[in-house]
Amino acid sequence: MGKIYALVTGASQGLGKAFALELARRQFNTILVSLPGEGIDFVASQVAELGQEAHCYETDLTQKANIVALANWVNERFAVSVLINNAGCGGTQRFQDVDVDYLDRIIQLNVKATALLTHQLLPNLMKNNQAYVLNVGSVAAYSPIGYKTVYPASKAFVHSLSRGLYQEFADSNVFFSVVNPGPMMTNADSSARLQQQGFFATMGLLTPEEVAAIAVRQLFKRDTLIMLNWVNKLTWMVMKFLPVYIRLPLLTRAMKKEVKRA
Fold first, then answer.
1. Is pLDDT above 70 for 82?
2. Phi, psi of 29 (to 5 degrees)
């Protein structure tokens, strides 16, 4: 059998970079996808230092033509056994204050790119004895939230898509999973913002490296809804059982404070 590869989107920084390095440590050759000009070559060099191949592809995944072109390029060259749909974006702002491109980007990247890239790479994945797809959601998927609005809706789509695909392909060689991380200390700015939100915002906080290590481990254990730690599980339980008329105003008030601070 020839070489097999793991593809990671949004691989230039944060969680995507952590996924790329975690997979390289597990002896996976990688295909690293990012926006142009984000320094993906540096991540590729780190993968190479771990003894694995790294092939870079720079594109904007909000465009359907780019998604199809990426999939065609991959399908012609590589046997893919792992797909991690990590690329995504969001933010906390007043709905009426953002421009249309801001909203469109969240929808196109979080919703369209995740679904279409998975669809286009599926024939490739199905050629392998065992293949895995991990979609990166968010704890925001568990509830609507004012001042985030489109972001939690987009991550609810990712969650629902992942669960549906898991069931549809339960008897196949392709295993689908979703992980819903909470806030992460990805850089100094996010760390400072989370510290401002107080103890509950920072309780059980994980680094991207920790999230990637747990998520990849659980993916290969065929865990279809990955919980990262006890705080992640507790958040899921609270969101699941707390009535929406209670949690929606609570979460919205917290986000309103963040908007005011900004």
1. yes
2. -70, 150
Residue of higher predicted confidence among 102 and 205: 102
Q: What is the pLDDT of residue 239?
A: 85
Helical ranges in 79-149 per DSSP H: 100-106, 114-126
To which residue do tokens 């900004």 refer? 262
Three-state DSSP at 63 gives coil
* Type of residue at 72: N
Q: CA 164, 182, 28, 9 torsion: positive or negative?
A: positive
For the chain, list the domains and their CATH numbers.
Answer: 4-261 (3.40.50.720)
pLDDT tens-digit profile of 123-133?
Answer: 999 999 999 99
H/E stretch holding 93 reads none
Helix H or strand E segment including 30: strand 29-34
Which pair of tokens denotes residue 29? 């050759």
b/e 127-158 (16+ beta carbons within 10 angstroms → b) = ebeebbbbbbbbbbbbbebbbbbbbbbbbbbb
